[in-house]
Design a protein that fits this description.
Distance between the termini: 47 Å
Number of helices: 3
Helix content: over 70%
Shape: elongated
Amino acid sequence: MIRPAPGVEAWLAVLLAGAGLIFGWGYFAALRRGVAAYIGHDRVWRVVAWALVRIAAAVLFFGFAVRWGAWPLLAAFLGFLTARQVAVRTARGVS
């Protein structure tokens, strides 16, 4: 097995943390839209399709991140969780 040079995983972790933050922002924006469609009594197939697309995107994103190793995956997940915190605070109206 070929090992990457020292420090490569650190840069990948930083890069994937930023990507996780951006992905999380889009994910939770899509979640908000899906909830609005559900509350607005939109067609059921649209609500289900929206949820399936969101989940599939998360599987693809984290599946891509896991290929780079444990630390980059953890960094991507932490970026995603940071976006979650921002989304929750925004939804609650807390600054």
